[in-house]
Automatic annotation (TrEMBL):
<feature type="transmembrane region" description="Helical">
    <location>
        <begin position="372"/>
        <end position="389"/>
    </location>
</feature>
<feature type="transmembrane region" description="Helical">
    <location>
        <begin position="431"/>
        <end position="451"/>
    </location>
</feature>
<dbReference type="InterPro" id="IPR011701">
    <property type="entry name" value="MFS"/>
</dbReference>
<keyword id="KW-0472">Membrane</keyword>
<feature type="transmembrane region" description="Helical">
    <location>
        <begin position="246"/>
        <end position="273"/>
    </location>
</feature>
<dbReference type="Pfam" id="PF07690">
    <property type="entry name" value="MFS_1"/>
</dbReference>
<feature type="region of interest" description="Disordered">
    <location>
        <begin position="63"/>
        <end position="89"/>
    </location>
</feature>
<feature type="transmembrane region" description="Helical">
    <location>
        <begin position="221"/>
        <end position="240"/>
    </location>
</feature>
<feature type="transmembrane region" description="Helical">
    <location>
        <begin position="307"/>
        <end position="329"/>
    </location>
</feature>
<feature type="transmembrane region" description="Helical">
    <location>
        <begin position="395"/>
        <end position="419"/>
    </location>
</feature>
<dbReference type="InterPro" id="IPR020846">
    <property type="entry name" value="MFS_dom"/>
</dbReference>
<dbReference type="GO" id="GO:0016020">
    <property type="term" value="C:membrane"/>
</dbReference>
<dbReference type="InterPro" id="IPR036259">
    <property type="entry name" value="MFS_trans_sf"/>
</dbReference>
<feature type="transmembrane region" description="Helical">
    <location>
        <begin position="96"/>
        <end position="125"/>
    </location>
</feature>
<keyword id="KW-1133">Transmembrane helix</keyword>
<feature type="transmembrane region" description="Helical">
    <location>
        <begin position="137"/>
        <end position="157"/>
    </location>
</feature>
<protein>
    <recommendedName>
        <fullName>Major facilitator superfamily (MFS) profile domain-containing protein</fullName>
    </recommendedName>
</protein>
């Protein structure tokens, strides 16, 4: 019985190593043409070990059994120099990798920044087209839905054609969509030119950025991802007031043209992602075979009760999450706050989000902090912050409330992929995130539309913020069941690992 468990664990570890190797390669990496199959296997195990460390979790294959010394990589400079793949990994975490990281940060500045500045565009469209709030909210809501809903397309195209091609096409799509939008005189046409075309382009850029980092970073991957996320928050804090000033001085159409020009320039930077690395024939066969057999989704993860419960919880939370991003600026203008100060509320949100990601990211690495409990607290505070919005006309209170909302929203954003990894394990996390991005695009869209419909009926945002604040608090309560299911899974695995430990 014990022997069968060990064999199964070793098979799972090797399979995970092959998957991570396939996902971490784009157009191939330099390999010695004479490298042996043993060296390739060693490299796969090293990748798996590092992935476990980056994810902040440990898989079954990383513990509970005796591992060969090579699984932990070289332990000294001498060993590193004699490792067959040491030259091969020289590009990781240094040199050109940081140029790639800076490029991804620049792209995320405009992509993430424009997403979080949706409220400025929403308020401008209301004045420009004089349509109902719900009709106008469709523009931003559909853009966000497209942005997250095309995750599978971005990942597949990046694996097939390379991240630089996908980033280039994404930037061009954003530029074309914004440029055409500057000439549109009908709100429904913006659903196509801005919501779909810009949203699609932004989605391609975003996921190309995520994938390219895995090809240049190993030990510093978490840090690089943090920089990208932080830069997206900074982009929102800069673009919101900047766009408001452009609206005042040059108008909506010219603002779209300026942004179109910025994305056109960004397309040139996508060439930084081009890779000249060679491919080992053995490894290329592994990658080709894996990609041909790979599915967009692993439907088996839907049998995981903790994952299903997490999707339900976050779906309820997402109904209220996008509402402040879309409606807060206009709500402030409705109560007499000038446009410049109203747009700055989104700056407070994004600055708070940046702090939340950094602080909670550090706390989540401390084992005694339960990540789901942190998210529960975040959901509860966000729900309460929604209750505050309609009962005050004080700008300082709105600004403080916006910062608190952003602080705890950032906590959720940084912990979501980690919790998915805790639930499914590193070998399934890409499938889990892909499916969650797709499914959550629906409530992300519905929330702003519900708020707009309620305003059109009652001429007030109060009921909308109360209802969506209540759903957010409900999601905090339901997250308790996620924690229970995860704990049961961990207890079961711990018992299994104890049975697999070699006797002394």
């Amino acid at each position: 019985m014990e022997q069968n468990r060990k064999i199964s664990c070793e098979a799972n570890e090797t399979e995970l190593g092959v998957k991570v190797l396939a996902e971490a390669s784009e157009g191939g990496e330099p390999r010695d043409a004479q490298s042996s199959n043993d060296n390739t296997e060693k490299y796969q195990l090293e990748n798996e070990h590092q992935f476990c460390l980056d994810a902040g979790t440990k898989t079954e294959g990383c513990k509970g059994e005796s591992r060969a010394p090579e699984c932990d990589g070289p332990h000294s400079d001498e060993e590193a120099a004699t490792t067959p793949h040491s030259d091969d990994e020289a590009h990781y975490d240094r040199g050109w990798a940081w140029v790639v990281c800076a490029t991804a940060a620049l792209m995320e500045f405009f992509v993430g920044g424009l997403i979080t500045s949706s409220g400025v565009i929403y308020a401008a469209l209301i004045e420009e087209f004089d349509k109902s709030r719900v009709e106008t909210a469709w523009v931003s809501a559909l853009a966000v839905s497209t942005y997250y809903g095309f995750f599978p397309l971005g990942t597949v195209l990046s694996e097939r054609f390379g991240c630089w091609v996908v980033a280039l096409l994404g930037c061009l799509a954003c530029s074309i969509g914004l440029f055409i939008s500057s000439f549109v005189t009908s709100l429904p046409l913006l659903y196509l030119t801005y919501s779909f075309l810009w949203g699609l382009g932004a989605s391609l850029v975003y996921f190309a950025n995520l994938l390219i980092l895995t090809k240049y970073f190993k030990a510093r991957l978490a840090f690089a991802n943090g920089l990208i996320a932080l830069d997206g928050a900074i982009g929102g804090s800069v673009l919101s007031p900047s766009m408001q000033q452009m609206l005042i001085y040059i108008g909506l159409a010219n603002m779209f043209r300026v942004l179109a020009g910025a994305y056109l320039l960004l397309s040139v930077f996508s060439l930084v992602y081009r890779s000249k690395r060679r491919v080992l024939p053995h490894q290329n066969d592994v990658i080709t075979t894996f990609v041909k057999k790979r599915r967009l989704f692993d439907w088996g993860i839907l049998k995981n009760k903790a994952f299903l419960m997490w999707i339900v919880v976050v779906s309820i939370f997402m109904l209220g999450y996008m509402v402040p991003f879309v409606h807060l600026v206009r709500l402030a203008e409705d109560i007499g706050i000038d446009k410049t100060r109203a747009s700055l509320l989104l700056t407070f949100v994004t600055v708070g989000s940046a702090f939340g990601r950094v602080i909670v990211g550090r706390l989540s690495d401390i084992q005694r902090f339960n990540r789901v409990y942190i998210v529960q607290l975040a959901f509860l505070v966000i729900g309460l912050s929604n209750f505050v919005v309609p009962v005050t006309e004080s700008y300082p209170i709105l600004a403080i409330n916006a910062f608190i909302f952003g602080l705890f929203a950032g906590a959720y954003l940084i912990l979501n992929p980690v919790i998915v990894c805790d639930i499914l394990g590193p070998d399934k996390v890409s499938y889990g995130l892909g499916m969650s991005f797709l499914l959550l695009s629906v409530p992300r869209t519905l929330g702003p539309l519900i708020a707009g419909r309620i305003y059109d009926g009652l001429q007030s945002y109060a009921i909308a913020f109360y209802i969506l604040g209540g759903t957010t608090c409900l999601s905090a309560f339901l997250a308790t069941f996620v924690s229970i299911l995860i704990r049961r899974k961990v207890d079961d695995k711990s018992e299994g690992c104890k049975n697999n430990e070699p006797s002394v």
